[in-house]
Amino acid sequence: MKKNIILTIALGVSTFFAACTKDANVDEIEKKLPVMSLSSFGISPDLTGPFANSNTISFVFGATASNTEVGAFDYAIYDAAVRVDSVHYEKWSGKGVTGISVSSVPSTYPNTKVYQGTITYKLDATKYLSGKKYTVKAYMRPAGNTAGYTPYQITVSNLITIK
User: Fold this and answer.
1) Distance between CA atoms of residues 10 and 16, nearest Å
2) pTM, entire model
3) What is the count of structural domains for the chain?
């Protein structure tokens, strides 16, 4: 009886350790990842609102792309349902691209690229009213023809507050 209990415990412990050392199947996991994703979007941590309606602010974001190349990036600023302003970037980086800076972050998935970015945006006093809060929606699209394509997006309500 004692021998059976010791064998059962030994078998359970060895199974536990064998299960803990099993490597994840990265290829299978990567297939289940979304093609594109905006994981975060906000104001740079070194800035604090409320802002004057003529300040320059910096947005920061995180994004991923699996088995695809990134294309256009857009963001729009809303007062409730009314679009106040929008900015379009045909590409995220390269010659002639200003206002957006993107860098790659190491990834354990061979076909997935992880990005962190910063966008510089100058508020326009004619568009932003004192005491108002504005929502920002950011969109990303894959490279190539995206006519009729629904972009990946993230919405941050009341992100910008004007003094």
Assistant:
1) 10
2) 0.77
3) 1
In a domain, 125, yes or no: yes
CA atoms of 4 and 114, how far apart (whole Å): 51
- pLDDT, tens digit (0-9, with 9 covering 90-100), for 46-101: 998 899 989 999 999 999 998 888 888 999 999 999 999 999 998 887 666 678 98
Q: Is residue 4 in some structural domain?
A: no
In which domain, by residue range, is 95 found?
26-161
| Residues ≥6 apart with Cβ < 8 Å to 122 | 54, 55, 56
Cβ contact 109:29 at 8 Å: yes
CATH number at residue 99: 2.60.40.10
Residue 21 lies in a domain: no
What's the 3-state SS for 124-150? CCCCCCCCCEEEEEEEEEECCCCCCCC
pLDDT digits (tens, 9 = 90+) for 2-55: 555 454 455 554 545 555 555 667 677 777 777 888 999 999 999 988 999 899
Whose tokens are 């790659």? That residue is 104
Report how far residue 51's alpha carbon sits from residue 28's, in angstroms, rounded to the nearest whole number. 46
